[in-house]
Design a protein that fits this description.
mainly beta, 143 residues, seven-stranded antiparallel sheet, globular, 60s Ribosomal Protein L30, Chain: A
Length: 143
């Protein structure tokens, strides 16, 4: 992983074989990010597990082959004192078919370039909302 920080902005580059989620968790720990948003991401991924929320669970599908990462957004918060990453992505295959949704896991196939905006001195929390959803709380200390 390569990274460059300028104030609240973190530019990140992941290379082939790196795990997207664990890399972002590692980044959050090392950079002490407890409140942030993944504002953009492009590249190519493989082994992408994507879900669509259907009320009580996610309908999940795994896309093994390489897919272009067209768009990536999400948030970084904490849950039980650990970084919690929530991502949504859009992926395109060789036939230019696009799939997307909640991104549970993925491995970088060639490269993944991301921008994260960090809110210094702030902590967002993920709270349980039923057995599946973990909702973002932007103001956990406001009572």
């Amino acid at each position: 992983m390569q990274r460059f920080r300028s104030g609240p902005l973190l530019a990140i580059k992941l290379e082939a074989g790196e795990d997207l989620m664990s890399s972002l968790v590692q980044l959050a720990k090392e950079e002490k990010v407890e409140a942030g948003f993944v504002t953009s991401g492009i590249g190519m991924l493989r082994g992408s597990r994507v879900g669509y929320f259907i009320g009580d669970r996610y309908d999940e599908r795994t896309y093994e082959g390489p897919h272009e990462l067209l768009s990536l957004q999400g948030s970084i918060a904490t849950r039980s004192g650990e970084p919690h990453i929530h991502l949504h992505g859009a992926l395109a295959n060789r036939s230019h078919d696009v799939v997307g949704g909640h991104l549970f896991e993925a491995t970088v196939h060639v490269v993944c370039e991301m921008l994260v905006t960090v809110f210094e001195g702030k902590s967002f929390k993920r709270t349980d909302s039923g057995p599946v959803l973990k909702l973002l709380d932007l103001m956990p200390d406001s009572g």
